[in-house]
Amino acid sequence: MTGLLSITTLILASAASQTNAFAGNGLLPRTTTLISKSQLSLSSTKTTTLTDETTWRLRLLLNDVTTSQGKKLDGQLFVLEGHFIEEEGYEPPQGLFRPFAKERVEGGTGKDNAMVLEVIRSRWTLSEDPNDKKDGLWIWGLFKEPLYPFMLLQIETKELELPSGTQQANDGREDIKSDTIPPLKLYAQVTHIRNEEVGVELKTANLNVRVLEKIQLPGASVDLYEEERVGQVSFQPL
């Protein structure tokens, strides 16, 4: 029994001396640390950005657009996917929306019965309230970074051919009529939020088109544009 106690004492003493040696070198013995699933998900989650690091899905719900055949679209959903790209050297920050190819997006739109719009050109600019022009508060040193509560977004699309429909001709035969959505120039004033944990947040906004109105004055004419609502756009980071 005495021999067994002495062996146990030697083992404990050896372990203690190893611990002291690690401590003297500024090192600690390896320990096992358990990390919860929630901690893993938080560490691997990236914040959303207006760069090519974040893919965005834009869902455009058009309610009041007239086709080439005079038909009014009523709640037709369209989808765009791509990246917001910021161009360097501009203040306020601005850039373009770079869409993915139509074929790449179409694969994920089936369950929504959505169609894909093709973009000709686009432009976005971060802004203060465009209807309330004033000096930015960051000029006076009140904020570390400029505060831009809005994104002004402009998207121009190609003409889009709609699925063919059939109409009854005068002689009783079915006459297949093709219909299209004309090229659109869409505008939106989007609420833009910078969340420390999530990153960039873009809120659902109204979609507008600009209607030209010519006003005739003595010896001259003036072009005025009025914005007319045609739907909504929502944003989803993927």
Task: Please tell me about this protein's structure.
The chain is α+β, with helices and mostly antiparallel strands and 238 residues long. Helix content is 15%, strand content 42%. It has helices at residues 2-24, 37-44, 102-106; strands at residues 56-62, 76-86, 94-99, 115-116, 119-127, 150-157, 160-161, 165-168, 174-177, 180-181, 185-195, 199-202, 205-217, 220-237. Strands 1, 2, 3, 4, 5, 6, 11, 12, 13 and 14 form a 10-stranded mixed β-sheet that branches. Strands 7-10 form a two-stranded antiparallel ribbon. Mean pLDDT is 76; it is low at 1-13 and 15-44.
Label this structure with key terms.
single chain; 238 residues; alpha+beta; ten-stranded mixed sheet; two-stranded antiparallel sheet; 3 helices; disordered N terminus
Number of helices: 3
Structural class: alpha+beta
> Which percent range describes the beta-strand content?
35-45%
Oligomerization category of the chains in this entry: single chain
Could you tell me the number of beta strands?
14
Summarize the amount of helix as a percent range: 10-25%
Q: Can you summarize the main beta sheet?
A: 10 strands, mixed
- The outline comes out as globular
Order of helices and strands, N to C? HHEEEHEEEEEEEEEEE
> Radius of gyration, Cα only, in angstroms?
31 Å
Summarize model confidence as the mean pLDDT. 76
What separation lies between the terminal Cα atoms? 68 Å
Contiguous uncertain segments of 5+ residues:
1-13, 15-44
In short, what is this structure?
The strands form 3 sheets. Strands 1, 2, 3, 4, 5, 6, 11, 12, 13 and 14 form a 10-stranded mixed sheet that branches. Strands 7-10 form a two-stranded antiparallel ribbon. Strands 8-9 form a two-stranded antiparallel ribbon. With 238 residues, it is α+β, with helices and mostly antiparallel strands.
